[in-house]
Structures are given as structure tokens and as C-alpha cells.
Design brief:
2 domains, 79% helix, 0% strand, mainly alpha
Length: 124
């Protein structure tokens, strides 16, 4: 009986963790690294992009943890940080990869906008 309970708890935990990594369509959510993976980066490019993303995360985390900033100030500073690091990444990629990246970014923005609109409808 205890084995059955253990298995049920284990399956429940697995189901909850799976639900957290998928959106409402059942597809896995795409993160920024997934977007770069689709660009067929070389090993050298992957290493450089990872390092840039790591630096960006460090800066963004410091802005988020700065309690003296208002929400709007945080948003502005994070936008500036993202812009700076996106420019760095653009120099690492080939022109073709940059085109693909921009197309993917537009696709993700549309998906996020659609998700926001759906949430607003539900909340209304």
C-alpha cells in the first residue's frame, strides 16, 4: 500500500512539473536559449553567446534586487541592458543568423501579445 502511495505521489509531482514547462497548447515554452539553438551556432558562437547571456543575467539580477529602484526604473534599466547585450550577440552571429533571430523574436513577441490579450479577456 505504501508503495502505491509513493508511486502516486511521484506521478503527481511529475505531472505538476510537466505542466509548468508547457503552455496552454501543450507545447513546451521556448526560452531565449532555445531560440539561439535554432540558429545552428558553431561551438565558438555557442560559447560566446552563453558568456554574453551570463553577463546579461548578472546585470539584470542586480537591477531586480535593487530595492531603491521603482518598477518603472527597473523596467527602463533592464531594457537598456537587453539592448546592449542584444547588440553584442548580433556581432557574434552571421547576417543570415541575425535575420533568423529577428524573425524568431518577432514570432515570440506576437505569441506573447496574443497570450496577454487572452489573459485580459479572461480577467475582464
Amino acid at each position: 500500500m505504501k508503495v502505491l502511495q509513493f508511486l502516486m505521489v511521484f506521478m503527481l509531482i511529475g505531472a505538476v512539473s510537466q505542466a509548468q514547462t508547457t503552455d496552454t497548447t501543450g507545447k513546451r515554452k521556448m526560452n531565449r536559449w532555445d531560440m539561439y539553438q535554432e540558429l545552428n551556432l558553431t561551438k565558438n558562437q555557442k560559447a560566446k553567446v552563453k558568456e554574453v547571456m551570463k553577463q546579461q543575467k548578472t546585470e539584470i539580477d542586480s537591477v531586480r534586487s535593487n530595492a531603491s529602484l521603482t518598477r518603472e526604473q527597473q523596467r527602463e534599466q533592464m531594457g537598456t541592458i537587453r539592448k546592449k547585450y542584444n547588440e553584442k550577440i548580433e556581432t557574434i552571429l552571421t547576417p543570415e543568423q541575425n535575420e533568423k533571430l529577428k524573425a524568431k523574436q518577432k514570432e515570440m513577441q506576437k505569441a506573447m501579445q496574443h497570450k496577454r490579450e487572452n489573459q485580459e479577456e479572461v480577467n475582464s
